[in-house]
Amino acid sequence: MRLKRLGLIASILLLLPLYGCWDRRELNDRLFELGSGVDLIEDGKILMVGQFMIPAKSGDTGSGEKQSYFIETGTGKNAFDGLFDMQLKLSRRITRAHRHNIYIGEKMAMSGISNFLDSVTRDPDSRIRSDIWVVKGGTALEFMQMTFPLEKMPAIALSKSRQIIGKKIGNSVLEILIAENVEGNGPTLPTVEVFYDRKLRKKTFHVYGRAILNRKQQLAGYYDAMESAYRLWVIGETKRIPITVQMANGQGTFSVEVQRATCQIRTEAKDGQVNINVELKGGAIVQESNTSWDLRQTNRLQTYEAELNRHVEAAVSSIIQKAQKEFKVDVFLFGRTLSRQHPEQWTALNTRWEQAFSGAKVSVHSHVKIKQIGLQGPPPNHEEP
């Protein structure tokens, strides 16, 4: 009998962890926010935007149904004040544990996002792995009001887009906080641009590239998609990159995909002068050739390689100079590399790295080899050498 009682008590104790809602917050009292936005408006006030899932519509299917989400806003002196104003308009408590993306309007990004990030990190209900995006030339509200035909929740569309184009989901709140503590590093954020497509006669959007932030977390400028891809090559965060080359002699263009892309950086600091050497390597596959050359001929293939490497060196040198002279922000982790290769010299340069980086001498060398030219023989417009 005693064993039966002990067994009953043990069974009850095992069942206790299975009970939910200890805080008495039922699911039907919560409102799930899958996307957030923040804009700087008149009088320096903050406009908070939320995209919320409508529970009754989230599981429905069919093409003739209403949208499964709605948008609400709140205005305040800061982010918390704006969220409080938004909550007053809703009958359920906002829950951000499932938030995918945070969108920041350009004007807000220019003024700085440090205060907004402070409000995010202090909120225990906030998801710190939410991706942060800058809306180039527009507002977060403008972007979040757009519809997207392929996703029931437009807030998650950009996350999937970045996966498709080969970039892992990144630059979350957590990663921005980590980047703040990396020596000689300038943070960047993915960028979306809203524009009017004249051919389709409607507003649409695309992933533009990267937004560059200075050490005060203020917008310093942008890299477009191709510039962003070259940057990823330099910092070692991509293994493949598509490149289209215009022949120097005006005889056409050709496109390749560089695979197994690697980069080696060597630094040197002497008498306050910093020298940086960037070595790029990879194997290229010809995807399209719009010239009259037969690439089965060794001399033609060698010319293609020379043109490709010339193009890469010029493109990478250009984006580095843009960071040095226009942004004045090290977005290539050169400072971190210098601190590891020459810790003694870094001690003297650490406090004035932005100035040292802007005046650094950077040399770029590309050693990409064309590995495959495809099954196509000579092109239809082939001309004998």
TrEMBL record:
Keywords: Germination, Lipoprotein, Membrane, Palmitate, Signal. It holds the Pfam family Spore_GerAC_N. Residues 209-374 form the Spore germination GerAC-like C-terminal domain. The keyword Signal applies. It is found in: Membrane. Residues 23-193 form the Spore germination protein N-terminal domain. Belongs to the GerABKC lipoprotein family. NCBIfam families: spore_ger_x_C. This is Spore germination protein YfkR. The gene is yfkR_2.
